[in-house]
Design brief:
Elements: H1 3-19, H2 25-41, H3 45-57, H4 63-86, H5 91-94, E1 98-100, H6 102-113, E2 118-122, H7 128-137, E3 142-146, H8 152-163, E4 167-170, H9 173-184, E5 188-192, E6 204-206, E7 209-211, H10 216-224, E8 228-235, E9 241-245, H11 257-278
Parallel strand pairs: 1-9, 2-5, 2-8, 3-4, 3-5
Antiparallel strand pairs: 6-7, 8-9
Helix pairs in contact: 1-8, 2-4, 3-4
Amino acid sequence: MTTGNSDRTARWIRLGMMLAPRIPRGLGFWLARQAARVLRRRSSAAYSMLRTNLAVVLPGTSERQRDAMAEDALYELACSYFDMVHFAGDKVFRAGLITVEPTGWKRLQDAIEAKQGLLVVAGHVGNFDLGIQWVVAHGMDAQILSLPDESRAQQLMTEFREKSSVVVTPTSVSALRTALRRLRNGGIVATGVDRPMDYADPPVVFFGRPAPLPTGHVRLALQTGAPIVVASCIRQADRSYYLKFWPPLEMQSTGNREQDVASNVRRVLALVEESIQEAPTQWGMLHPVWTPPQANLRD
């Protein structure tokens, strides 16, 4: 993202954070739809990127279907950001907005009570931020490992998350050390796993195609013995959310570290694919996943 684009994005984020707590939810969602239609007509970079990524997730769709899905994805993404701000902090708990899948939630609670560290990972589908806020509102401490993005837009998002008592640490040697200590002390570390950090990284299979996705979550799990839990927070037709935790994945170890990393990353991604397929137009991935950024955005 260029400096000019980053500054414009930051201004829009700042405006949204100012307005979202003050306007009715229905109006916020209506504005989200109007914005999505404008961005579609302009074939904006965000629209084109969502369209390209969805074409891989939903092969066999027509050009017209992809156009409509990309607009819907923009709308869903805007609604997610609106809700994240509108229901910030303990409002998400008091509003009764989220229904949690009871079996997975009980497993999570039991693990934390037993002081067993957990790595909670997700794709950028639904409203993962709101789900984390809900977990924190229930008294659970969590550290989010984010990408080392120094743009003003990302800084605004980090500052907002920290106001909700979430510890946000851009990935670095220091942040990973903090995550190791937290896991060994029975805490929660959360991170997204469906966006490349370095396009030179060895590829793993994601939706049937090689993608240079991160492996740090699996390396942390192998090093600490912490299981990995895939989570999603999907918006439903009635505009409520369903928070789901898949059964914990214990890491498989053969003694060959790189082979173990690759095989366990694939096991995690299989569940992440499942979570995205449950609501593909809520997959708000605004970055190239399978091709470097300079590649053509239109498929």
